[in-house]
Structures are given as structure tokens and as C-alpha cells.
């Protein structure tokens, strides 16, 4: 076992890092943060030291309990299994399926198609349209799914892993100037979640590595 | 509760559908298959009837126990929670984290970047290179990660959800003519898995909707 606090390798603007920061905040887990700047020095995630830690060269990465975990949802599931309070997955397997379905819709169906490394490949001219298409095509589906799963939040009235995926994806959508008129359910849930402390302390505008001009 | 067998909406060549077909085979779950041809008629997933079932317009989709689940990993996790034998996730939370990390690496980090709808957007001229880059960049990381997690299979000596993701992704890599020289661990595990009955009966070359010329 590794002694000491968990260490989160994070970038203020990474939506996948934000998911994990919310989980840590909700569960009241004290941790140390090591910022990895995905832009500076050509991307610090490409340094030899970081690649040795995470061969995918991505944040978030969490060192905890003597192991190193990559992939935000794998990290959140591990936290849920080892630090179960408060729950981020409902007890009912059918509701858990809804939570994971929404989480995966965002984590596999939207985020990877609009992340920094893909947009670089797509090229500057078309990247805004590309990102908007990826997000609206996912949000069109999500808006419809939420109409049958949502209560106060994405699935029922408790905050779940799905909500940890929703809020950072909405923030990305706002950065890419997506029109939210077709997404009243998404907008309403997002607003409710942003009122919660765990979503505020973990917000990209309030991280140790947030540039001064973006702080709020 | 819905009466009758689970219904899997599947496409023979969809790597995400194959993941679920392996899970169903391993767990000995009897099911009905409804083929959804992603090419024919401009893509049957875009039909109104299918969109009503899955607003993401993707396979796999599973109707089971009165609910409809999309997203392959959410489906597999539900099967694991409701039909736990044989296990597809180890008991030890740290090993479960490894399984989910590898599964997510493939399901979020590789597959979405080389699937049919993205390659269409990328355009015919560059799509082979695009797909190869997405796969090799993920496999470079995976090869390294497997060196510390693998036994006979991806994580230890039991078949897990990670293996259900690996084999279909390797098949895609082969279709895109990826050079496997740098991936001895991936190749070796893939070969072992393909020898198992559940991976054979669920294989794309042996589905009800496999075109005659691709059957084996």
C-alpha cells in the first residue's frame, strides 16, 4: 500500500478530469493535485515522466491505495466500490444500468469525438463545426433518454455518476457555442447540479492551474 | 416485466455488438437477435422505428427484464449484476479497476475514433490512415498496460469484460491492416481468447446477418 493522500493528475479544462474532481468532492476524499498542462510545452502529457505513469498520455490519472488508475469512469467506479458513501450508483440494477448508459453515451459517444487531440487532427477551419456536430448528435439522444430517466437529476432524484459526466460535457458544449434551445431537460438538470458545492469547488474556473484570466 | 427472451439488436460487424454477444454466450443467456444493417438502406439504424428504440441510432441495444439498455459496457455491467455467473469482473476492487480501465481505454479511447460514422466524416481518402492512427495510438498504450495486468488473459487468468473489448478491437485492427509486430502481448491474448467457444459462436463471420461471402 502506498502511504499518503491520493494524487490526481488533472488539467483544469479537461472534462474527464472534472468528472473525477466532482466524485472526490462529493465523497469528501482529501487528495493532492498535480496539474498536467495539455497545451504548454507542446503538452506536458507527452513528457517521458507522464507517459511512464499513463501510456495513453491523458488526464485524469489517479494514484490511490498503491495503484494507478486511468480512465475517468474506471476511477469513479473504483471510488464507488472502495468509498461507497455517498452513493454515485443507485441500488437498483435497472437504475444503475440507466446511470451507466448515460455515462457511457457521454464518455464514449460524445467526449472522445470533440476532445483536444481529435480537433487538432480535424484542423482549425472545421473544428468548431465538427465539435458542434459531435455534441448535438449526442445531446439530441440524451435529451430524449433523460425524459424517461430523470427526476431532479439525470436518473431520479439523487446525484449519480451520470451527472458527473453531464455537467462537464455541457461546459464543453457552451465553449463550442452549441445552441441549447432543443435541450431544456439537459439545461435544467445542469443548472440544478451547478448549484451544488461539489460541482462548484471542482469547476474549471476554480482550480490551482486555472489561468488568472479564466478564474471566477 | 417483459415476458420472453432478451432481444439483442446487433450488426454482425459492429465491434460493440460483438462485445455483448460474447457476454451473452459466456453467461449462457438465451436470446433473440434482431439484425440492424448499418449500411443497407442508408443505414437501418436511422429508421424511425429504431430511433424510437435507441435515440443514439447505434447497436448494440438490449431489451431485457422489461428495460432497454444501450451502450455495450452498460449492458455488460447489467448482465454481470443480474446474471453473475460466470464472473466477468474479478472480486478484488483493484483488479476490477484494471478491467474497467482497459475496457474504457478501448471503448472510449479507440473504438469511437475509428467507427463507421466517424470514418464517413473523415472522408474516403484519409480514413484508412485515420483509423490506423487511432488504433495504434491506443494499442501502444494497451500493450504497455497489459504487461503489468495480464496473465493468461487481459487481467489475470480469468476472462473478464476487458477481454470482451479486446478481441473485437483486434478484429477491427486487422480489417484496417494494422501491423501487429509491436503488439506481442495483445496478439497472444487475442489468440488464446479466440480459441474459446464463446468468442467463436459470437464471431462476426458466424452471425445470422453475416453475408455469405464473409461466412466462415
Automatic annotation (TrEMBL), chains A, B:
Residues 92-212 form the GST C-terminal domain. The keyword Hydrolase does not apply. Its cofactor is glutathione. The keyword Transferase applies. Pathway: Amino-acid degradation; L-phenylalanine degradation; acetoacetate and fumarate from L-phenylalanine: step 5/6. Keywords: Cytoplasm, Isomerase, Phenylalanine catabolism, Transferase, Tyrosine catabolism. GO terms for biological process: glutathione metabolic process; L-phenylalanine catabolic process; L-tyrosine catabolic process. GO terms for cellular component: mitochondrion. SUPFAM superfamilies: GST C-terminal domain-like, Thioredoxin-like. It holds the Pfam family GST_C_3. It catalyses: 4-maleylacetoacetate = 4-fumarylacetoacetate; RX + glutathione = an S-substituted glutathione + a halide anion + H(+). It is found in: Cytoplasm. Residues 4-87 form the GST N-terminal domain. Its EC number is 2.5.1.18, 5.2.1.2. InterPro entries: Glutathione-S-Trfase_C-like, Glutathione-S-Trfase_C_sf, Glutathione_S-Trfase, Glutathione_S-Trfase_N, GST_C, GST_Zeta, GST_Zeta_C, GST_Zeta_N. One of its GO terms (molecular function) is glutathione transferase activity. Belongs to the GST superfamily. Zeta family. PANTHER family: MALEYLACETOACETATE ISOMERASE. This is Maleylacetoacetate isomerase. It comes from Aotus nancymaae (Ma's night monkey). The gene is GSTZ1.
Amino acid at each position: 500500500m502506498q502511504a499518503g493522500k491520493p494524487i490526481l493528475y488533472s488539467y483544469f479544462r479537461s472534462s474527464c478530469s472534472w468528472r473525477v474532481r466532482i466524485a472526490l468532492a462529493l465523497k469528501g476524499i482529501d487528495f493532492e493535485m498535480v496539474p498536467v498542462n495539455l497545451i504548454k510545452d507542446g503538452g506536458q502529457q507527452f513528457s517521458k515522466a507522464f507517459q511512464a505513469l499513463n501510456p495513453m498520455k491523458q488526464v485524469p490519472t489517479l494514484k490511490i491505495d498503491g495503484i494507478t488508475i486511468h480512465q475517468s469512469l474506471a476511477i469513479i467506479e473504483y471510488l464507488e466500490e472502495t468509498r461507497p458513501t455517498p452513493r454515485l450508483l443507485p441500488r437498483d440494477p435497472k437504475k444503475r444500468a440507466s446511470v451507466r448508459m448515460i455515462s457511457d453515451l457521454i464518455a464514449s459517444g460524445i467526449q472522445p469525438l470533440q476532445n483536444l487531440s481529435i480537433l487538432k487532427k480535424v484542423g482549425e477551419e472545421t473544428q468548431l463545426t465538427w465539435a458542434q456536430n459531435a455534441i448535438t448528435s449526442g445531446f439530441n439522444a440524451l435529451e430524449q433518454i433523460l425524459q424517461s430517466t430523470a427526476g431532479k437529476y439525470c436518473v431520479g432524484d439523487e446525484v449519480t455518476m451520470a451527472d458527473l459526466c453531464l455537467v462537464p460535457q455541457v461546459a464543453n458544449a457552451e465553449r463550442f457555442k452549441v445552441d441549447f434551445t432543443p435541450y431544456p431537460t439537459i439545461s435544467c438538470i445542469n443548472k440544478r447540479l451547478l448549484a451544488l458545492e461539489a460541482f462548484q469547488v471542482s469547476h474549471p474556473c476554480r482550480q490551482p492551474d486555472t489561468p488568472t484570466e479564466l478564474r471566477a
